[in-house]
Design a protein that fits this description.
The chain is of the alpha/beta class. It has 2 domains: 57 residues, no CATH class; 166 residues, UDP-galactose 4-epimerase, domain 1, CATH 3.90.25. The strands form 3 sheets. Strands 1-2 form a two-stranded parallel ribbon. α2 links the parallel β1 and β2. α1 packs across α2. The relative contact order is 0.16.
Length: 227
């Protein structure tokens, strides 16, 4: 068994291969700002080390969607805490289009539970995407729930998702790209943009992995934590 941490060179297949020896599963949790292609080295090392199952760092949005696979991803509780989905503390939000686009959302704890459950369902889930969610929400629903909790008005700014995407792609391609102008808007589009497969309702694996859906009460309790 490996110790809790091993120093490796993530640009070196031999270094990673040595670290992954005698392991059956690799779960990649690379940060969202990791350079494109960095995961390839880890995949090559997992193959070289005869790892039987590799979980890529593609948690969040639907990477089987042709449009979405080119963009980064996010989580519900992180999105509230970091002000990604809205700014609960200041009661402000940037609303994409009309704010009524439904999308599947999942907290980090549920993602962890699902990954652990996958270890008991390796055959049923091999070589395919796995879909779970805690709930389906919209930006407007989040704000409506927040208003019911503390009865405060929100300051809302409306933007066009197509225009945001175009501007963000130009910024993201720059060598000295500004994260707030390039990466973060792309994150928003991957969740809140039309046509990115954000609602998983039609093909969920919740039942297989024993992931229960979040009730409206539980959703409200989660949002209340960040107000």
């Amino acid at each position: 068994m490996l110790p809790l941490s091993v120093e490796v060179d993530y640009s070196s297949v031999p270094s990673l291969t040595a670290a992954l020896q005698n392991n059956d599963v690799v779960i990649a949790t690379l940060p969202v700002d990791t350079p494109i292609g960095s995961q390839d080295t880890l995949i090559d090392a997992a193959v070289a080390a005869s790892v039987s199952r590799f979980f890529p760092a593609e948690f969040g949005t639907d990477t089987d969607n042709e449009k979405c696979m080119k963009l980064p991803h996010s989580f519900f509780d992180w999105g509230l805490e970091a002000g990604f989905l809205a700014h609960p503390k200041t009661h402000t939000a940037t609303i994409y289009d009309d704010g009524n686009l439904p999308w599947s959302t999942t907290i980090l704890a549920t993602v962890s539970k699902a990954v652990a459950s996958l270890m008991s369902h390796l055959e049923e889930t091999k070589n395919r995407h796995v879909y779970i969610h805690d709930a389906v929400v919209t930006q407007n629903k989040i704000i409506e729930i927040a208003k019911r909790i503390d009865d405060k008005d929100w300051e809302l700014t409306y933007v066009d998702s197509a225009a945001v995407l175009e501007e963000a792609q130009v910024e993201y391609r720059k060598a000295d790209s500004d994260c707030k102008k390039g990466l973060m808007p792309l994150l928003h589009i991957s969740v809140l943009g039309k046509g990115y497969g954000g609602d998983f309702s039609g093909h969920l694996d919740n039942e297989l992995l024993r992931i229960k859906l979040m009730s409206d009460k539980e959703l409200g309790e989660m949002i209340a934590k960040y107000l």
